[in-house]
Amino acid sequence: xxxxxxxxxxxxxxxxxxxxxxxxxxxxxxxxxxxxxxxxxxxxxxxxxxxxxxxxxxxxxxxxxxxxxxxxxxxxxxxxxxxxxxxxxxxxxxxxxxxxxxxxxxxxxxxxxxxxxxxxxxxxxxxxxxxxxxxxxxxxxxxxxxxxxxxxxxxxxxxxxxxxxxxxxxxxxxxxxxxxxxxxxxxxxxxxxxxxxxxxxxxxxxxxxxxxxxxxxxxxxxxxxxxxxxxxxxxxxxxxxxxxxxxxxxxxxxxxxxx
Length: 259
Hints:
There is one protein chain. This protein has helices at 3-22, 44-54, 58-71, 85-97, 104-107, 116-129, 182-190, 230-240, and strands spanning 137-148, 151-162, 169-172, 180-181, 199-204. The protein is α+β, with helices and mostly antiparallel strands. It is globular and about 50 Å long. The two termini are 17 Å apart.
């Protein structure tokens, strides 16, 4: 393989990462006050514990967040500010059938990692590759003890994208298997809560985990051996598989999709 070809493909993925990494330095949106304090490096476990210690009304806080996010209207030029149910379903199908995100057993044979955060990352990058505006994509975390089928877990994360055919935001989550509005997505997980205090947080899209930071490939980051090459293989997939003009949701996309 020539050095030019290798560097061209590398620039593509690094360019994609540079865009999502830069999101953490953006100022809070003027009409987006709830999201402003939820920085990429915030510890959501700590935040929830503080809210419970103070005696906050968790249900009221979640309700207020939903009201505020539904008021936010992205406005970006030359990119999509929202997508349809069918387009969101396409991203879910891609996530389910991708050779990395669709094969959890290969990278997590003991079921100890889960990789909901990996699938959310994949969905985020696919939405960008398909021409969706950065401000129209967020992450949604639910934090708190949950139990289902004899399995206990402490958080779940999915990618949110602004809906163009309905009022609100679609959760793009393979756990449910189809796009659902944020309110319905959260209601689905509330039934798994063991203490009735499940907390929802909406963050910028490049937050990787509840107490983890933005996407990075530094030591201890996404390429750490703990993940069994999950993210290395994912980024290699992005290098090897461009989105064709026919596949994109909008023909004119940002410069990160060029060599």
